[in-house]
Design brief:
binds nicotinamide-adenine-dinucleotide; 317 residues; alpha/beta; two-stranded parallel ribbon; Rossmann fold; 10 helices
Amino acid sequence: MKILVTGGAGFIGTNFIYYELENYPDDNLVCVDKLTYAGNIDNLKKAQQHRNFKFIKADICDRKVMYELFEKEKFDVVINFAAESHVDRSIEGPEIFFQTNVMGTQVLLDACLKFGVSRFHQISTDEVYGDLPLERPDLFFTEQTPLNPSSPYSSSKASADLMVSAYHRTYGLPVTISRCSNNYGPFQHHEKLIPLIINNALENKKLPIYGKGINVRDWLYVEDHCKAVDLIVRNGKIGEIYNIGGHNEMRNIDIVRLICNQLDKSEELIEFVTDRKGHDLRYAIDPKKIHDELGWLPQTKFEDGIQKTIKWYLNIK
Ligand SMILES: NC(=O)c1ccc[n+]([C@@H]2O[C@H](COP(=O)([O-])OP(=O)(O)OC[C@H]3O[C@@H](n4cnc5c(N)ncnc54)[C@H](O)[C@@H]3O)[C@@H](O)[C@H]2O)c1
C-alpha cells in the first residue's frame, strides 16, 4: 500500500509516520510538508533512513505540484494531517487558516478524485463541536453533535470536514473523518500547553495559564490517536465520522500543577494571564462508536503518558 501523509513533519503526523513504519514496514510512505514554523524536518531524521519512506517539501495548496505528485506516485491512501493548528495564531491572523485548512484540503480532494484513491482520511478535531458547559459533566460530544465551532481555527476545520463529506456524497469519493481530543506526547511544538509548561518549568520561567485555569480538555496520548487513525483508515466504514478521545478530562491548572510536581518545581511559577478570546470551556469526547465498531480503546494512562512525555522533553534539552 502507498500512503501519502500530509503534515508529517508536525506533531501528530511525525508520530503517525513512526507508528506506520514500525507496524507496516512494507508499506510505502510519502510525507508532504511545507515545513512552516510548526514543521520540523529533524523530527523525521530516523524515518528518512527507512527504505520505504520519502519526504517531499511542498504546499498542499499548490494544485499543480499536488497533481504532478499524485500522477507520479499513484497513492492508495491519503491522510491529511497538514494544517495550521494553533488557536491563538488563528485569532491573530485567520487568513492562512482558511487557505491551508480549507483550500488545501480541497486541492487534495480534487487530486484524489482526478487520480483515484481507495481512501481519503481527514484528521479533524473535537473543536468543531464548540464547547460544553463546565457544570454539565454528563454531556459529551458524539458524532451527531451539531458543528458549532468557536475560533477561526475550529471553523476552518469544520469547513474542511463539510467539504470532505460533500465530496463523498456528491462524487462518491471514499472518505473517512476522525475528530480527536487534545493530544500530548513527543514532537509537539513548544508553543502548545504541555511542552510550553515543561520547557518553562525546566528553565524556572513563569508558567502562563489563561484565565483561572479551569478550562477542561480531554487529553489523549498521541500514540493512542495514531492507533485509532490507523484502524479507521484500514477498517473504518467509508463515509463515516469517528470521534477519538479517552475520557481523560483535566483542568488546565491541574495539568500545570502535575508537571510542577513531576519536575519538582514550585507552583509559585504559575502566572494567570488574560483569558483567550472566546475561550472554549470544556471538551469531552464520547468514543463509543470507535470502540464498538473498531474495538479501539486508549491504552496509555495519563500518569504514564505524561511521564514518558516529560522524559522525552528532558532528553532533547
Ligand atoms: N494537536 C492536537 O491536540 C490535535 C487534536 C485534534 C486534531 N488535531 C489535528 O491534527 C492535525 C495535526 O495537528 P498537529 O498538532 O500535529 O499540528 P502541527 O501544527 O504540529 O503540524 C502541522 C504540520 O502541517 C504542516 N503544514 C502546514 N501548512 C501546510 C501546507 N500548506 N502544506 C503542507 N504542509 C503544511 C506544518 O509544516 C506542520 O508540519 C491537524 O489537522 C489538527 O487540526 C490536532
